[in-house]
What does this fold into?
Amino acid sequence: MSLDLAARPQLAEVHAFERLGRHVLFDVASMTFYEVSPIVHHVVEALAAPDARAFRELAGRYRRRDLAAVLAELRQAGVLDRPSPSPARAAAPRPRPAQIRTLELMVTHGCNLRCRYCYGADPRPGWESAPHLFGSRASAMPWEVAKLGVDFLLGASGSHRNLGLVFFGGEPLLELPLIRRVTAYVRDREAASGKRVQLSLSTNGTLLDAAAVDFLVANRIGCQVSIDGPAPVQDANRATADGRGSYAALLPGVRRLIAARPGRVPARVTVASGPVDVPAIVDHLLGLGFGSVHVEPALGGCGAARLSDDEIVALERQTEAVAEKLVGSVLSDRIFDFTNLVRFVRATRVVEERLHHHCGAGRGYLALARDGSFYPCHRFVGMAEYRLGDLAHGLAAAPRRRFTELTVGARPGCSACWARHLCGGGCWKHAVDAHGGLERPDERASCRLIRHQIECAMSINAALAVDDQAILGSAART
Ligand code: SF4
Ligand code: SF4
It folds into this structure.
């Protein structure tokens, strides 16, 4: 095989990486990945280097016939000398304003906990004047606002038949009477409108008494519990209003809910600054009987609880340890749903969708504040520059258009990112916290962590046989 190292072939848009001890090559246009040998990885890096010298220097490290074989392999995979722009970019759709599918009702801004990373309400002195806190002193959403919110959702959902209504807070179960009343109203309106509304809420778990659990189960209300792990971690991050740890307060209710819905209650963990052991947290929560665990870093407006650069690196290492456990779990038939990775295991195994946005916030997803104002999601409530209209006057087209038009293809920081159609552009609020606007993503933390999770997911798939990928990708269970 002849090899001319003076003529460097043109490399298509690919991403080569080593993760979990495997070398993987991701072809961005086709969104397919291959496990490759270290020499292929090295050749790809040399082809991608800005300076052609790195490619010529390969001759000093590898035999020419091995290099020729690698180039033949890459050519066969279709990643050399391919015309650009990539088909994926050419196929980007024209963004159009979406019909509304999900509405968050901010039923209260009050809470019985004082989590140290909370971006929301807290009546500590001085907090009321902080610029972007949505909470002032606790008070519930008026019934009229909630009722009009339901009417709005049903009316603004156009042709969508399956909708979502989320009770959010603060701690939403502080307003259980309002939730009961809204639920009855929704069920009543569902029949007349011909639509189905999936109800859900996110709770800190401390108010799950028997009556609350019975109500949630009887009314098929999805319930995610925010819990940070074993007692020492939970109590360090999430104190009660009078300064005690909250683990003992939530355990009976959490056990009650899990007993009513075994294996179907999701746990949502916030990892804040300080010592943390994610694999131990995952083990603990799965041991309690949660059906899935999702971990989010404390970033942006979380004050001293925000993760430092070193802690982000540590979080990546710990995520890799969970990834190794996931691979082992398939082989021992004890699969669990660590959603940070399992969602990307699914998304990279069989590509069903190319994301153009990370989430529906501001497009098909809105939050309704207690004063009747709309915001992109709960994290924006109270930020005047992101207010998207109100119940009285309807949605404002111009501010909403910003969310619609900022696709990954149109967003400067994302358009050349290899992960764009798996990530979709990251959380808008992380971008705002990092740079004060929607246009630029949070490269320091958000981008770094999401790309790392995607790499881990592809490496997990590479480590598994096709049948085992399917098991992990479709039916996580413990
Ligand atoms: S990882 Fe960052 S740069 Fe890449 S698409 Fe996501 S938000 Fe954009
Ligand atoms: S903007 Fe961020 S917090 Fe809001 S819905 Fe999207 S991902 Fe969630």
